[in-house]
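Annotated sample (chain length 325).
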Amino acid sequence: MLNFKRIAGLCALGAACALSGAAHAQTDAKGQSMTIVVPYGAGGIVDNTARAFAQKLAAELGKPVVVENRGGAGGMIGMNAVARAHDENTLGFTAVSPVTLSPHVMKTLYDPLKDLAPVAAVMYSPVYLVGGPKFTGKTFKDMLSQAKADPDGLSLATAGVGSLGHLMLEQINGQAGVRIAHVPYKGMAQMVPDALGGQFTLMLVNASGPINALIDEGKLKLLAVGSPVRLPARPDTPTLAELGYPMANMTSTFGFFAPASTSPEFRARMNGLINKIAAMPDISKPLTDALNIMSPGTMEQFAAQVQKEYADNGKIVKEAKIGSE
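Output written by the structure step:
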């Protein structure tokens, strides 16, 4: 069982700082601007998508919409800032893992199902298992062979402790009986340069234009994907389910959340605007070109998905014995 006491303490400290910063931004704006909190560092698919939506929302609402990065603790610091905002000028854009997964492995300062309100799903993204220049193999089988031959020789980076990538790694480690070391990051911005620089061996990362380009250039090796089926653009790459790891075969859902204290009318309006923006070709095409799947819908549909993933992840975490002590 992994010990997350120290991480939880850092989360609590960081969350307090995040709340202070968020409150300061709202005071400066005198309630006239909207803030989209991204619970990861700058750069990467979440941050870039949030900024594209912010520009469109500003035009629709007729007021500034700013993006604030609140990375750390697998996204929980940023989502705590959203949960505690208590206004109708704050949204969070995130992978759903800080709501449906992280609370099962670390103590949170928010109740994911009571303090946060799902507003709109935007898309889901395949997860790539890739090897960097430091990885000498070519396939998933090579990775397992190396991990068994040298138990401390491989390291794998993810978006953080309690992230979807972390859970996928624990599933692989547990089922294969190997010990690939976990290297948690706050997001892709530094993770990708570090991968290219050989700071670790492997990483689990969402499909994106820059990652696809690095794979095409041969700078990263695509070993497997978390996806319901093989990707048409990557037909030679097996899914983790095909490789015999169905519990690790996961995708990332991304969407907008609001503080639960906001009115149903506000959330309904945001749902309509977000779905409208998601359908705009200049928003959807770059995302689908990067192999993401757009998944608009109602607030009720997104809420049902979040609740199901929360319950499912709880069972997986318990069975894998991942959790705080």
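Annotation: The first helix runs from residue 5 to 29.
Annotation: The CA atoms of residues 226 and 250 lie 5 Å apart.
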